[in-house]
Amino acid sequence: MALVISSASARAEEMQLLNQIIDRHQRMHQQVSPAIVAVEARHAKRDKERERDGAKFYGTGVVVSADGLVLTSSTVVPNAARFVSVYFTDGRVMDARVVAVDEATESCVLQAIVPATDARKTFTFVELADSSKVNVGELAYTGGNPFHTITRDGQVAWSIGTISGSYSITSADEQSRYKGPVLETDAAVNPGSDGGPLIDSNGRLLGILSLCFCESRWLGTAIPVHLIQKNLEPLRAMTLVDSRAATKSFMADDALTVKYEHDGGAAAARSVPDAMRIVSRPAAKAIVKLHIKRTPTGRENTSERKTSLARRLRQRPQGVVSGVVFEADGHILTSAFNVDGDVISIDSELSDGSLYPARLLGRDMGLDIAVLKIDLPKGYILPVIPLAVDPKLQIGRFVTVLGSSEEGAAPTQTGGIVSALARLDGCAVQTDALINYGNCGGPVIDLRGRLIGIAAFVRTHQDWSQQNSGVGFFTQSDKILSCLADLKAGRDIKAPVGAFLGVKAAEGSVDVKGVKLERIVPESAAANAKLLPGDIIVCLDGMDTHSWPSLVRALKAHKPGDTIEITFQRGSVTSTAKTVLTVRIEGQ
Predict the structure, then answer these.
(1) H or E segment and range at residue 153
(2) Among 226, 160, 199, 247, which residue's Cα sits nearest to residue 35?
(3) How many Å is the Cα radius of gyration of the chain?
(4) What digits encode the pLDDT tens for the residues 73-130?
(5) What are phi and psi of 338, to 5 degrees?
(6) Are the C-beta atoms of 220 and 60 separated by less than 8 Å?
(7) At residue 4, does pLDDT exceed 50?
(8) To 5 degrees, how large is the angle CA 279–CA 283–CA 287?
(9) In Å, what is the CA distance from 130 to each residue of 155, 204, 242, 334?
(10) Distance between CA atoms of 293 and 332, rounded to whole angstroms?
(11) Half-sphere exposure in the Cβ direction for 78 (13 Å, CA)
(12) Helix 264-279 / helix 8-32 crossing angle, nearest 10 deg
């Protein structure tokens, strides 16, 4: 149901709620930022005469005690580093010494050394949260020093998101060797953020941001602070506080005070993440981890760490993918992308950990969905979530995408909104919820807890489909229902073949009434029509093409093999040409 503001009082209440949320986020930033520092480490002292540094590392740290203990990552302060400096947002710079290092959690404790001339002997610091009790879907913040934001501008790079996953991984990053449990977040994490804090909704430290990541997810991760505290002696005497508990301010006397649980803004700020987490519980029980075995390609023998990150981003990783049980007799929905190629076998791992072989029944390549079937023991009660008959999709609606993690019982969860309808020739809905190899095939849930779609259209070769780009797609439930009978009957449905003209529009030509061409695909319909870069298409078969979307709409009215007439401008001359539309060839 659409939101309707029926009175001035209703509008005032909504504005009050929004102001509470904004105020809460601002106060979190104001309180926590003074405790976040830039960390620089060098092998040798700076050569001031020649303005040269020794080998230098940089990242982020967070102050965790009033006497200046700084927690960071050992990737920021490696063993060979002899000289360490910490930079505060107020402009202070202090030397620091390494107090303790734990390679198992890639963590490091520094002691900031207060200059004798500095009258302030205590530090603003953050409490340690009991990260073992945090739930996937809870509100979270990240703070860091990417691109030297603290050292250059005196500002912490601050981002708001959620705890999007909790699982165990072996790091896929060549700079990290971490192996163990992580907290994943969909808040921003960039190079230079490592060593920085993952903060809970009350401003307490949940974990230290890491360079490690999972190749099926490609999202930021943090090493949970309860593991770090256990392994680092200087932190063992510190109390781990329940992240939702109310307590006095953890900051110095001159800092602002957060009222924690009793603050209306805290509840408001957590309202959407908490609501999505609660309504998604039935769907979470119906998620299936799909273990898919394929014929080896030879790439498995190459060293993964020697392959560039950019190239690996475009390679389907080995590991589990996602599906969801939508009928109690054992029918499972997933993405067709997950089960394409030379598949040898599919095993489905249910939420209770039981493993059953699955049969591929049918696929719709245009909608990028597939139906699988598992046979269950008699009397087995299978958690299911049915497809919504009418998803009532509108731009701006909140959605969450659930998925499987490599090693961990809790499903992953990324949230966002519906950002566009009828994308990809009407086959997909666009969302800014992050979608990747791991949650592709997983359920998309709305604020009412309904299964409104399946995460899909992740590809290895197309820029628009790269995971976590902020442009993700899902297949809506009513379209799935329309072809479900065929898929359950074992039929494959091919993707519709669209007509291909073979042109690329020039960027930035907003003042042109028509579609200005930047590139013509060789041997395409446009090339056969003798079109050239710089030409402006103004009409196609009598339909005005004042913009790229209007040209696409005009082409959708045709099929390959149709003869069309193109009206175009070349300089001051308007001409027409006839050509026969073709189909796109792979690589064009």
Answers:
(1) helix 149-153
(2) 199
(3) 27
(4) 999 998 867 789 999 999 999 999 999 999 999 999 999 999 888 777 789 999 999 9
(5) -65, -25
(6) no
(7) no
(8) 150
(9) 27, 9, 5, 35
(10) 18
(11) 12
(12) 100
Map residue 478 onto helix, strand or coil: helix
Q: Which of 152-161, 266-275, 293-302 has the highest mean pLDDT?
A: 152-161
Determine the longest span between alpha carbons in the chain, in angstroms.
84
> Are residues 27 and 20 in contact, defined by beta-carbon separation less than 8 angstroms?
no
Residues 6+ apart with CB under 8 A from 6: none
DSSP string, 4-25: ---SHHHHHHHHHHHHHHHHHH
| Site of tokens 């309808």 | 421
Residue 57 confidence class, pLDDT cut points 50, 70, 90: confident
Return the closest-CA partner of residue 89 out of 118, 60, 114.
60
3-state secondary structure of 134: coil
> What domains are defined for the chain?
1-274 (2.40.10.120), 281-298+315-488 (2.40.10.120), 503-580 (2.30.42.10)
pLDDT at position 243, please? 65
Pairing assessment for the beta strands 428-431 and 412-423 based on DSSP bridges? antiparallel
d(Cα 422, Cα 441) in Å, to the nearest integer?
A: 19
Q: For residue 540, what are its two tokens? A: 């196609």
Judge whether 227 and 236 are in contact, CB under 8 Å: no
Report the length, in residues, of the chain.
588
Q: Is 403 in contact with 438 (CB distance < 8 Å)?
A: yes
Instruction: Please name the residues in contact with 180: beta carbons below 8 A apart, sequence gap of 6 or more.
Output: 104, 105, 168, 169, 223, 227
Whole-angstrom distance, CA of residue 438 vs CA of residue 292: 12
Q: Give the pair of three-digit tokens for residue 534.
A: 């710089």
Give yes or no for a contact between 321 and 292, defined as CB atoms under 8 angstroms apart: yes
CA distance 353 to 288: 10
Q: What are the DSSP calls for 275-338, one per residue?
A: HHHHHTHHHHHHEEEEEEEE---SGGGS-GGGS-HHHHHTSPPSS-EEEEEEETTTEEEE-GGG
- Report which secondary-structure segment, H or E, holds 422: strand 412-423
Distance CA(433)–CA(467), nearest Å, equals: 10
- C-alpha 260/C-alpha 238 separation (Å) is 20
- State the number of CA atoms in the 13 A half-sphere of 373 facing the CB: 12
Give 60-81 as a 3 state SS string. EEEECCCCCEEEEECCCCCCCC
**With contact defined as beta carbons under 8 Å apart, do 444 and 451 qualify?**
yes
Other Cβ atoms within 10 Å of 372 Cβ, number: 25
Structure token pair of residue 16:
């009050």
Mean pLDDT value of segment 30-52: 75
First CA to last CA distance, the chain: 43
Residue 388 identity (one-letter amino acid): A
Mean pLDDT value across residues 401-409:
83
Which pLDDT tens digit goes with each residue over 453-494? 999 998 766 555 567 778 899 999 999 999 999 999 999 988
**In this structure, what token pair is assigned to residue 97?**
């010494």
DSSP state at residue 221:
E
> The whole model's pTM is what?
0.82
Contact 412, 165 (CB under 8 A): yes
Cα angle at 215 between 272 and 185, to 5 degrees?
A: 25
